[in-house]
Amino acid sequence: MTMTMTIHDCLEYLKDNDGYLLLTHIRPDGDTLGSAAALCHILRRMGKTAYLYDNPQVTASYKAWVAPYIAPEGFMPQRTVAVDLASENLFPEKYVRQGTIDLCIDHHPTNSKYAARLLCQPEKASCGEIILQLAQALDLLDQPAASLLYIAVSTDCGCFVYANTDAGTHRAAAALIEAGADYRTINHDLFRQFSYARLRLEGMIYSGMMRFGPNSCVTVATVTLDMMEKSGATEDDCDDLASLAGRVAGNRVAVTIREMKPGQCKISMRSGQDFDSSAVCALHGGGGHKMAAGCTVSDTPERTREIIVRDILEAL
User: Fold this and answer.
1) How many domains does one find in the chain?
2) What are the beta bridge partners of residue 269?
3) Residue 216's CATH number
């Protein structure tokens, strides 16, 4: 049975133990990487041994930020902590679980409670906001931690434009900037600069968008393997593709279908507060937040679009 923890409980656990391996989720984004790296930095400042699992899917945008924290080959952890990892099917690629996941720190309301201990605050826009509380309580919020947490907070709210952004998100960002976060560099590198291949891919995505439902309120964007090849895009060019479909005016539900391999598609769904994306994704074994969720469908992109649109229209 999973033990539910408070911030205080989590702090005491982190103080009492050592030899930490921190896990980030499959296809890691800025929140899981920034939060885990910041926690790793904080644990080291506490005098603990701590490393990040060497997630093979870390993209070029984040590699330099997390490189100092990657575990050396052969590291044997005493405690394993999952960060921003809602369920077991999101464990990082090539990770072989050995024993219990001792602690999970997360902000997803659909967390499956797979870990022995869980600190979950679903009201937070990012996991970074939870790690920030730990850092502040320990008085260990320095410049490196602040920059890593700014990456976590800013990427999970789309640089403060997604619907999950609230006053708490802005207060967290202000605290991180005051602590020395290199926010100008982060904003420029993560939100203002894109490769030529990425821009070519975006053009293909926009030109192929389709709309469905009453008042065309459902927008679907598709990214196929063929589009990836023709644009010259790699995995490094695919950060935050899920935000593109939601830019269409009048949109209520935005879906991005990405063909990961023949016969398998990843679904990313974004919506307003009046639609439960996680409920639809749960139909296919996925989950997430009410306004941001995902799942995987084993079918072609065309057939996947038919299935997902049908489920959305039924929910509407």
Assistant:
1) 2
2) 255, 293
3) 3.10.310.30
Q: How far apart are CA 39 and CA 87, in angstroms?
A: 20
Distance CA 284, CA 238 (A): 23
Task: Give Dmax (Cα) for the chain.
Answer: 58
> How many whole angstroms separate alpha carbon 68 and alpha carbon 178?
24
Closest CA to 190 of 155, 149, 166: 155
H or E element that contains 272: none
Residues 41 and 164 in one domain: yes
Q: To which H or E segment does residue 94 belong?
A: none
Burial of 20 (0-12, 13-18, 19+ CB in 10 A): buried
pTM above 0.70, yes or no: yes
Task: Report how far residue 140's alpha carbon sits from residue 146's, in angstroms, rounded to the nearest whole number.
Answer: 10
Domain housing 268: 196-315
pLDDT tens for the 316 residues of the chain, in order? 899 999 999 999 999 999 999 999 999 999 999 999 999 999 999 999 999 999 999 999 999 999 999 999 999 999 999 999 999 989 998 998 888 999 999 999 999 999 999 999 999 999 999 999 999 999 999 999 999 999 999 999 999 988 889 999 999 999 999 999 999 999 999 999 999 999 999 999 999 999 999 999 999 999 999 999 999 999 999 988 999 999 999 999 999 999 999 999 999 999 988 999 999 999 999 988 899 999 999 999 999 999 999 999 999 9
Rg (C-alpha) for the chain, rounded Å, is 19
Closest CA to 308 of 291, 203, 299: 299
User: Are residue 50 and residue 103 in the same domain, yes or no?
Assistant: yes
Q: Is 47 left (phi over 0), alpha (psi -120 to 50) or beta?
A: left
> Which tokens hold the place of 133?
């509380």
